[in-house]
């Protein structure tokens, strides 16, 4: 059996891009991005975020792709191989295992909510409800000890099913269907949203910056969001890149994914903010509930005389969220289970099953933190918020920093150059800029922002 058809690698370049974009595009774009943008004043946040995407997250993503593609097996092996086992970098191989479990455990909770809302939209449960009813419904639902667990279980079961099918049959085929569908759904929703009354106020919020709203916290949030949305820093894309063919152009792939991801985030903003402003009394800083309380209400109010449109609009939106969540959750499960599969010779299905069971257990704790375990906190954070904090504000920046130090300082320059130029068969005009960012700019930037956030220095 040839290496490219054995279901252990992505078969094609398009499949590799779509799977990587599938990991990147997710609830981070459609749920977390509008929440963060709304909470941090709109356009100014968007600009800072785009700056981080260009100068930090995308170069680190390309670094991850370079390490993984060079390894061709799994992250642990890749880190050992690329610098000839110099120094002890093996711990980076365990990062995706731990981070994958943590991130999937709380991501699956929100992914579960999206399934519940897709179901509610499907059975026309939103019809005729008021803002207050939506708000009560949501708080009752997320604090219910049992109902969210059913959906979390379903999401994890689907995620497991796709990962167990393997790289080509599961991950690549899934991404090939879900990513284009997602894009089409989004485009339809943007057009609908922009034709709503007062849509221009939402547009101004998203596109006209007001820098007086920018604080030190805005900067860390923008950095955290840029890492989260591109799945960088915890070796998720490094895991996927292990399955890339040797002829994939890593720079082109990385830049394409960054552009797709940013376009999807901006499109989500173009759906959500005009919609929010089209109903008097709603606010763009409603936080995480924006997507679950504000939006269903918006769909009902805006299409008040056209129940069929309200139905279609809501159903499309939540189905889109479910798909976006799935293409990302499969990358999380893959990153944590590939270690056992590749390093410990466990079957793909068995390692994915064990990881899924661990995630389900932790997800229960995360889900309970909205209800019966509300009062159990660590550093004043419930389990869900604690996991999000650990991933987006600690693991991702520190992981990103370590990846830069590894590729920029520990791996020989010509090994990196040969990998990104596919053994000098393609030119990469941006290479010197990339290396400058990886060696100097990114590490210093991450360190400064990180230290300032810990309150050690006030810039
Ligand atoms: N990038 C994904 C999103 O925007 O929803 C989330 C994500 C996927 C984070 C994979 C981390 C990860 F390893």
Helix percentage? over 70%
Task: Catalogue the unreliable spans.
Answer: 1-5
Measure the end-to-end span: 58 Å
Q: SSE order in H/E notation?
A: HHHHHHHHHHHHHHHHHH
Radius of gyration: 21 Å
Q: State the shape.
A: globular
Share of residues in strands: under 5%
Bound molecules: 4-fluoro-L-phenylalanine
Mean pLDDT: 90
Going by helix content, strand content and strand pairing, the class is mainly alpha
Count the DSSP helices: 18
Oligomerization: single chain
Total strands: the figure is: 0
Major sheet, described briefly?
none
Give a description of the structure.
This protein is mainly α and 459 residues long. The chain contains 18 helices and no strands. α2 (27-39) packs antiparallel against α10 (216-229) and α3 packs across α16. The relative contact order is 0.19. Residues 1-5 have low confidence and may be disordered. The structure holds 4-fluoro-L-phenylalanine. 4-fluoro-L-phenylalanine (PFF) binds next to α1, α2, α10 and α14.
